[in-house]
Amino acid sequence: MFERIMASKAETDRMEPVNEQVVANMYASMRTELNQIYSKITELEMEASEHSLVINAIQPLDQSRRCYRMIGGVLVERTIKEVLPAVQRNKEGIEEVIARLNEALEKKKKEIAGFEAKYKIRIKKSDSDVKDDSSRKEGSAQGVLVGPASSSE
């Protein structure tokens, strides 16, 4: 029993960061994971959009009409009647994966927020970022003066 307690204490010690550099590395790793989830969601949303375009293009056509579908790198000739349900199923599967990734994204956001609160992490902007922000604000506040399209002389 004592060994089990010691083992669990050792595991907890391993999980607790030792210094600021380790905390920073863990935080950067978590942010990287978050960005990977964002990019995967974006990629899958594009794929679902492409599936929707295909569905909308072939749905009104004659169901016996021939069409071609890429399956595992091989172009296969089928009818719309055969292809349409498969494309719809694929789209639904992609949407399910997107939903699960969104859940994972929310979990990761909460995990990062907890980590930030626990270790009092604040993101500092570099001087160049601050200058860029101020120039953007000024640029967006400036207007453009355009003369009349045709002269009325």
From TrEMBL:
User: Which residue stretches belong to region Disordered?
Assistant: 126-153
The answer on whether this UniProt entry bears the keyword Chaperone reads yes
InterPro entries the record matches: PFD2 (IPR027235), PFD_beta-like (IPR002777), Prefoldin (IPR009053)
Q: Please give the coiled-coil regions recorded for this protein.
A: 91-118
- Molecular function GO terms recorded: unfolded protein binding
Q: List the Pfam families.
A: Prefoldin_2
Give start-end positions of Basic and acidic residues composition bias.
Answer: 126-139
Q: Per the record, GO CC terms?
A: prefoldin complex
Annotated keywords = Chaperone, Coiled coil
**What family name appears in the similarity comment?**
Belongs to the prefoldin subunit beta family.
Record protein name field: Prefoldin subunit 2
Organism annotation: Acer yangbiense
Per the UniProt record, the lineage of the source organism begins with: Eukaryota, Viridiplantae, Streptophyta, Embryophyta, Tracheophyta
